[in-house]
Amino acid sequence: MCQVASAGRHPFPHKALGQRLSNWGRWGAEDERGTLNFITPARIVVAAAEAREGRVFELSIPLGSNGPQTGVANRTNPIHLMSIMPGDLSAPDGMCVADDFIAMPLQSGTQWDGLAHVGYDGLLYNGVSADTITAMSGVARNAIDRALPGVTGRGVLLDIARLHGVEWLPAGHEITPEDLDRACVAQRVEVGSGDILLVRTGWRRKALVEGWGGWLDAEPGLGLACCEWLHRHEIAAVASDNYAVEVQPGQGAYLPVHCVLIRDMGMMLGEIFDLEDLSADCAADGRYSFLLVAPPLRVANGVGSPTSPIAIK
Ligand code: UVW
Q: What's the pTM?
C-alpha cells in the first residue's frame, strides 16, 4: 500500500496534496522508477502498435549555444567546441579525423527531470534523504540512470494552445484538469495507464516567433489540480514545451507541481520539448497518439539528462 509522505499538517496546500497522492511504497521500499512502473510489457506492445505509417518527429530543440538559458542558477546554454580538427591527426592514407566536445548543464535544453531533482522537508521520492546527494558521488538513489531502459511508451499529445484557439497561451495561464479532459474529447483520444503525456502550451512556438528573450520569466503550464488528474490516469511521465511544465509564477510556492509529481508521486518531468511539427501533424490527421521513444542519457548518478525524443506515427 502507498504510505503517506510525512505526518502532520502542512502550511502549504501542495504538501497536503502530495501526501494524498503519494506513491511511496507502491512499488516497494527500494523503488527508484516511480510512475515509469506503469509502463508494463503489455503497454509497450500497445505503444509499438501506434507506429503505423512510419512518420517520425524529432521533439528536441537544437543542443547548442542558441538556447533559452541566461546563466541564472548556473544554467548556461551548451558550449560546443572542436577537440580534433581534420589537420590534427591526418594519416598517410589521407584519412582525416574530427572530434568535438560539449560542456553543458544537464538541465539546459530538452531534458528529463529525474526523481532526485526536487524534494522538500529533507526527503526525495520514496522517502530517500536528500543527504544521499553528495558533491563527490552525485545521486545515490533515484538517479536519472535508474529510468533506463526507457523512457519509451505510448505517447499522447494534448494540445491545450490549439484547444484555446491561440498560437500560445499567455504567461501565467493555468492549465486545469478540465482543459485536459476537454482536449481529450476535442481530439478524440483516450489516455491510458502507462501513457507518456505531452502537453502543448505553444511556448516553444513563442520562442520560434519572438526569440528567447524573456522566455524564462514566466510561462503557461499545468496547475496544481492537474496532479490529481495525472495520478488518476496513471500517467508514466509528463512533458511540455515550456521550461518547467507547471504554470509560473508558481501557485503559493516556488514549484509546487514539481514537488508533488517528482517527490511524492515519483513522476519524471520533461521540459523544453519541441511539439510544433508533431502538433501540426496530429491536427492534420486527427490522431494524437504515437509511439514515443525518449530515453535519458545513461548519466551515472546524475540528476537529470538531455534527451532527443522521437514520436513515431
Ligand atoms: C528548477 O528550476 C528547480 O527546475 P526546472 O528546471 O525543472 O523547472
A: 0.95
Q: Dump pLDDT digits (tens) for 104-157.
A: 999 999 999 999 999 999 999 999 999 999 999 999 999 999 999 999 999 999
Q: Which helix (H) or strand (E) holds 18?
A: helix 13-21
CA dihedral 57, 63, 67, 73 (to 10 degrees): 120
SS3 content of the chain, % helix, strand, coil (to 5): 25, 20, 50
Rounded Cα–Cα distance for residues 162 and 168 (Å)? 8
* Residue whose CA is at the smallest distance from ligand 1 atom 6: 244
Separation of 254 CA from ligand 1 center, angstroms? 10
Q: Pick left, alpha or beta for residue 48 (phi over 0 → left; psi -120 to 50 → alpha; otherwise beta).
A: alpha
For 194-214, write each residue's pLDDT tens digit.
999 999 999 999 999 999 999
As a whole number of angstroms, the distance between CA 47 and CA 152 comes to 8
In the chain, where the domains are located: 14-25+32-69+105-312
- Which overall architecture, per CATH, does domain 14-25+32-69+105-312 show? 3-Layer(bba) Sandwich (3.50)
Mutating to test ligand 1, I would choose from 201, 271, 303 the residue with most ligand atoms within 8 A of its C-beta, which is 271
